[in-house]
Every structure is written in C-alpha cells, then in structure tokens.
Design brief:
single chain, mainly beta, four-stranded antiparallel beta sheet
C-alpha cells in the first residue's frame, strides 16, 4: 500500500431533523462527519471513522494551517437559542478530530462556513443572517464579534419572486476571497460584498450590493480569473456572471445550468466549483441529477459542454481531488458518493465508482 498516493476526505451530512426551504422537515440518515481515505492513483474511497456528535454538518472548511476543521451545525434551536451552531475541531497528526468547542450562531439553519482574516463566518439560511467569530491561537472559537441580519420590506417585493422560497431573507453563503467577504441572499435576490480590515472586521465604506432579477435566488459562489465571479442561481436555474474588477461588481449576464431547450423547472442548482486552473466550471443540478461541465472562454463566459449523470439523486456538493484527476460528488437523497475520472484537458467527467454515504452534502480534502 502506497500512502503517498492517499489523501483524507472529510464529508458532512444530515443526521438530525431540520426545517427545509419549502417548510417540510427533513430526516437525514447521515453520520455527522465521516472521514474517508482516497487513493489518487486508483480513484478508490475507503471509509474510516465517523463523528455523529457533529450534528447536521452541512458545510465544513479547514483553517489555513490544516490544524482545525470548522463545521456548521445546521439546526433550528441549538440549546434554546432558536438557531444553529458552529463547531471547532482539532485535527491531529493522523487526521482524527477532537472537539475544541461549539458556540451558537444566533441564526437558524447555518448552511455555509468560510475562514478568512483570522475569523470564521457562517451563513444562516433560515435566520437570514451572517455571523462572524474571532478565533484563538489554537483554532478554538473565541466568540461572535459581529452579526448582520438582513431585513426585507414585504410590501416592496417585486413580481416574479418565488412566494414560498423568498418570503424572507435567506443568507445562503458567506465566502472570503482576497480580503473580501461575499454574501448571497437567496430570499432577497441580493449579493453583497464587504472589505475586511486584515483582522476579520468589515470596512463599511467598501460594502457593495448587487440586486439580481426577481426570482433568481443566488446561492453559491466561485471565483475565477481577472475578477470574474460565478453565482449559482437556485430559483432561476442559471449561472450569473459578475465582473468584480472595478469598485462595484457588475452583472455581465447569465447562462442556463441545463442543456439548451430544457426549462429547468424543479432543477434548483446548488454547488458551483472551478478547477484549479480556472478553465472549467462545475455546477450541481439537483433536480436534473447531473453535474454540469462548462468551459470558460477568453471573455470569462461559461459554455456548457457536458451534463454528466450524478450517479444518484440531488448532487448537493462535490470537490475535485488535489491532483485534479478526480471529482467526487455527494448525492444527498440517494445516500451515496460517486467518484468521477476527470479529463484535465477537456474537464469532462466519466463515472468511476459508487459508495454508500448517508445524506452526505459537503466534502473537503485535507491537503497538507
């Protein structure tokens, strides 16, 4: 066995009841966090330990030094706070996890977490809010130091919105990129960005807001070359292309997440990911049950070239392996992980293997 070709893969899943966007209660068959060993040569996964006490770990990320894993606990009432929680877990030399501490985020259903400028940021979907946590030197959470709660005037809502999904603010992602915090709000059709001062605090004068067309439902972000930002729009079945080179982001256009001629009703695209060289973009089509593969042209615009069947239902999350030779997709509703071989030149995918994994929704490789 050649351990030089093996890397740890951490997955998050639902294992406690949670209120979904359409108002129903979802009961996942997950294990909280599960660790796998992935063979980069053979494209094979081996299941290792699990951590069920990290409830509803719907998004995970590592600190830059890889010594801490942060996981949101997508709950609606953690310890009576009417919100979810954020967990800090130490990563030992063997890649095993030990809980450092866990704090409430003061917003319901946190669904995304990112690290930047010495802080950890959570997007709280049902709370319509963002929470910022300072961290200690050992990676544990020091405490929440600021909190943004989006507000909506219902009487001013335009025609064309989804009256069920956009009844209030729904902050879906909070991503730090090159010193800027980007926030998407699916409920308000809004993307906002905040400059950070190097200590994780916002610089208010650099705050920008961009409104997308009514009913877009911005969800996830990917950052491309030369200031381009790509946004999966869950409700309109589109990818929004932003040019963020200037002082304020500018909407350049949209492309469909599905092949030409398919209207996308019931598709609800979710995750979005760029290859390391920024030449190919991947989108999870959760209703179509496919991974859309897009080539990025010289003008930064995506062109669809493949819609690979995801090998299951509801491909919620996916990641490229460190070598870029593989893509692993998490199919939440069919309780499986699917490994795809990836052509690094064309970006196209070929299914390679399937593995059982209950209600798995997010993935992160531990890269030393």
């Amino acid at each position: 066995m050649d351990f030089l070709n093996k890397v740890k893969l951490y997955t998050g899943s639902y294992n406690s009841p949670i209120l979904t966007g359409d108002g129903s209660i979802y009961h996942g068959r997950g294990e909280g966090i599960r660790v796998f060993l992935f063979d980069e040569e053979k494209g094979v996964l081996e299941a290792l330990e699990s951590y069920p006490d990290v409830e509803n770990a719907s998004w995970i990320t590592f600190s830059p030094d890889k010594k801490t894993l942060y996981a949101v606990n997508e709950l609606d009432d953690y310890e009576g706070t009417k919100g979810g929680a954020l967990s800090s877990l130490a990563v030992d030399e063997e890649g095993k996890l030990v809980l450092r501490n866990r704090l409430p985020v003061m917003g319901a259903a946190p669904c995304h977490v990112s690290y930047g400028e010495g802080h950890v940021f959570t997007a709280n979907y049902n709370g319509g809010s963002l929470s910022s946590f300072a961290v200690n030197e050992d990676g544990s959470l020091k405490g929440m130091d600021w909190h943004i709660v989006n507000k909506m005037e219902k009487e001013d809502r335009p025609e064309g919105i989804d009256r069920v999904r956009q009844e209030k603010p729904h902050v879906h992602s909070a991503s730090v990129y090159e010193g800027v915090l980007w926030i998407t709000d699916l409920g308000m059709d809004e993307i906002s960005s905040y400059g950070l001062d190097g200590k994780g605090r916002t610089v208010p004068i650099t705050c920008c807001r961009l409104e997308l067309p009514a009913g877009s439902g911005p969800r996830s972000l990917a950052f491309g070359k030369e200031g381009y930002v790509y946004v999966s729009c869950e409700l309109s079945n589109q990818i929004a292309i932003l040019d963020a080179k200037g002082e304020e982001p500018e909407l350049k256009g949209f492309v469909s997440c599905l092949p030409e001629g398919e209207n996308g009703k019931g598709n609800f695209p979710g995750g979005i990911l760029l290859s390391k060289d920024r030449r190919h973009l991947y989108v999870g089509n959760r209703g179509h049950n496919s991974i859309g593969v897009f080539r990025i042209d010289q003008f930064g615009m995506p062109e669809g070239i493949q819609w690979a069947p995801s090998g299951g239902k509801n491909p919620r999350g996916f990641q490229l392996s460190p070598s870029g030779r593989w893509l692993i997709a998490a199919n939440q509703d069919s309780d499986n992980l699917v490994v795809f071989r990836r052509d690094k030149e064309t970006g196209m995918l070929t299914e390679h293997g399937r593995y059982d994994a209950g209600a798995v929704v997010c993935l992160a490789f531990l890269i030393g």
